[in-house]
């Protein structure tokens, strides 16, 4: 006799298999209300203090709403000078830190990958050394130099780096402080780009090393360069300890100097400094997200095949 195969009723099969509508409802993403709640709390955490500070600057008991704190701020003694000084120090620090870090990291990436841990440790050391210790070392060197090198040409160098109009010593100190952030940003960018392949392709077309760095690698590192400049700018505009202990008065030190006598003006200048910082950071972020184009090597420099 032929073997009898059990049959499953069609009704039971249809009941066991989920319908297409049920599968669609199950796979449809559910709205997550908690995301909006978290964003609302984060926005309130940042915006409520700013709004309260702004109300404090414009509302005077017994006088109502007035903008004297902001109108007087533009004509306050030292405001323009300290702001321009901080912006100049930030620009010089960005240029110096990138000039030191970019060639070094590219050289390590291409020629000596084994030296990467050594370079990383050296760049991360400023995070371990407290700023007060750095200031103490700088002060000791600045005092020792004029005393022992007064009859040498280096004496004028020690005086020049302490010029109050543009203290180069602050640029050097800020460059050291910014190295960890610059290194992390550039290292992440170099890891995301196949540097050896780009260099070999450009060199095989006859491009020189300056052309490879400036026209091939740097456009691919635009986001990393903008991130490094972003962090350096924020660091310089908000740094107070080193500049104050060395006796200079950039923007952050000037804000603290007027806080005791003119409370509303100090809060107003703090809000204004935040707006200026955000505006500059927005410009840097836009520069970093702009589409990058890699320029080919000039036709005259290509090798004939």
Please tell me about this protein's structure:
This protein is mostly helical and 305 residues long. The chain is built from 15 helices and 2 strands. Strands 1-2 form a two-stranded antiparallel sheet. Helix 6 (116-128) crosses helix 9. The longest helix is centred in the first third of the chain and has 32 residues, at 79-110. The radius of gyration is 30 Å and the shape is globular. 22% of the residues are buried.
Give the SSE string: HHHEEHHHHHHHHHHHH
Count helical runs: 15
Sheet-strand content, in percent, reads under 5%
**Structural class of the secondary structure composition?**
mainly alpha
- Percent helix among the residues? over 70%
Number of strands: 2
Largest beta sheet: strand ordering = 1-2
Point out poorly predicted stretches. 292-305
Question: What is the residue-averaged pLDDT?
Answer: 79
Radius of gyration: 30 Å
Globally, the shape reads globular
Query: How far is the first residue's CA from the last residue's CA?
Result: 81 Å
Major beta-sheet overview: 2 strands, antiparallel
What descriptive keywords fit this protein?
305 residues; disordered C terminus
In short:
The chain is an all-alpha fold. Helices cover 73% and strands 1% of the residues.
């Amino acid at each position: 006799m032929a073997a009898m195969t059990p049959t499953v009723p069609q009704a039971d099969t249809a009941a066991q298999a989920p319908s297409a509508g049920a599968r669609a409802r199950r796979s449809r993403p559910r709205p997550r209300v908690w995301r909006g709640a978290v964003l609302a709390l984060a926005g309130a955490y940042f915006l409520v203090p700013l709004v309260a500070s702004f109300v404090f600057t414009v509302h005077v008991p017994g006088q109502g709403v007035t903008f004297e704190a902001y109108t007087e701020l533009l004509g306050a003694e030292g405001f323009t000078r300290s702001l321009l000084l901080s912006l100049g120090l930030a620009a010089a620090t960005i240029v110096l830190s990138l000039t030191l870090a970019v060639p070094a990291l590219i050289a390590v990436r291409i020629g000596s990958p084994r030296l990467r841990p050594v370079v990383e440790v050296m760049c991360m050391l400023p995070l371990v050394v407290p700023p007060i210790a750095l200031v103490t070392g700088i002060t000791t060197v600045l005092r020792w130099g004029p005393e022992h090198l007064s009859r040498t040409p280096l004496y004028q160098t020690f005086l020049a780096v302490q010029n109050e109009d543009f203290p180069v010593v602050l640029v050097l100190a800020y460059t050291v402080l910014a190295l960890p952030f610059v290194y992390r940003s550039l290292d992440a960018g170099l890891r995301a780009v196949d540097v050896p392949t780009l260099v070999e392709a450009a060199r095989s077309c006859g491009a020189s090393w300056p052309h490879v760095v400036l026209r091939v690698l740097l456009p691919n590192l635009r986001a990393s360069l903008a991130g490094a400049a972003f962090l350096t700018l924020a660091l310089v505009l908000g740094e107070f300890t080193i500049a104050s202990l060395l006796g200079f008065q950039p923007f952050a030190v000037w804000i603290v100097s007027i806080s005791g006598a003119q409370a509303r003006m100090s809060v107003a200048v703090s809000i204004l400094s935040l707006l200026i910082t955000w505006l500059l950071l927005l410009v840097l972020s836009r520069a970093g997200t702009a589409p990058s184009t890699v320029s080919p090597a000039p036709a005259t420099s290509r090798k004939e095949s």
